[in-house]
Each structure stands twice: as structure tokens, then as C-alpha cells.
């Protein structure tokens, strides 16, 4: 498990916190490990080691939870800090933050496209087959 106070130190032993952190606005689902309760959070910045989110939930530092990030899936983590409606989450393992920012409609593989979009794409293709040029 990752120590929430340290985020992947570089070769100099200095924690890299601000360097690889990007500001963004992304919604995600949050699930508490102990109770399995779920809620929605608004992610404001994301890095390979964690995130900062606005969350109207009651959490305490050290709480275990999972975050469902788009194109990444459920990522286990620990609440690192809590302050005025915002929480910091340290992931248990590093992720690829670029995958979470990748637009849903630009997937290269059919498995990357959500089911509801696969269905809409098929309906659109089927409707074009029935059209006739005049």
C-alpha cells in the first residue's frame, strides 16, 4: 500500500506531488470498502498516485475506498486528507491518468466502447443500410 504522505519519490528521494498532477473536471463513482455505499464525486486533479475531489460525503482520513475512473475501472485507495468538502485520495497502486482523460468516443477497441454506445452505433449503422440514394 502507498503511504498517503509520500507520492512516488523520484531518484533524489524528494516526493513528486505537483509535477505530474493535472487539473481537470471529471465525474467518478466512489465506493466505501467497509459499507459498499456509493456516491458520485467531482475530480479536480488527478495523478498516477492519487486525486483530489469535491465530495459531499462524510469520510475520515485513513478510510479505505474505491474510485471508478472512466477507462481505468475501480481503483482502490485510502483517504489521505479531508478539508471543506474536498478529499485527497492516495491510490494503492499507480494508474495511467491519461487513460481517465481519454474521451469515451475515441476508443480504438470495441471493448473500450461502453455498451450503450455500442448499441447506438449499431442502430445508426443499421438505419443507414435502409437508406436509398435518390
Secondary-structure content class: alpha+beta
CATH superfamily of the largest domain: predicted glycosyltransferase like domains
Radius of gyration: 19 Å
Helix content: 10-25%
What is the terminal separation in angstroms? 64 Å
Mean pLDDT comes to: 76
Counting DSSP E segments of at least 2 residues, the number of strands comes to 6
Please indicate the count of domains.
Answer: 2
Main sheet makeup = 6 strands, antiparallel, barrel
Global shape: elongated
CATH topology of the largest domain: Thrombin, subunit H
Annotation keywords:
alpha+beta, 6-stranded antiparallel β-barrel, elongated, disordered N terminus, 2 domains, Thrombin, subunit H, 134 residues
What does this structure look like?
The chain has 134 residues and is an alpha+beta fold. The chain has 2 domains: 1-102, Thrombin, subunit H; 107-134, no CATH class. The chain contains 2 helices and 6 strands. Strands 1-2-3-6-5-4 form a 6-stranded antiparallel β-barrel. The longest helix has 15 residues, at 115-129. The N and C termini lie far apart (64 Å). Residues 1-19 have low confidence and may be disordered.
Can you summarize this structure?
Helix content is 15%, strand content 36%. It has 134 residues and is of the alpha+beta class. Strand 1 and strand 2 form a beta hairpin.
Secondary-structure blueprint of this entry?
Layout: E1 22-32, E2 38-46, E3 50-54, E4 64-69, E5 73-83, E6 86-91, H1 97-101, H2 115-129
Antiparallel strand pairs: 1-2, 1-4, 2-3, 3-6, 4-5, 5-6
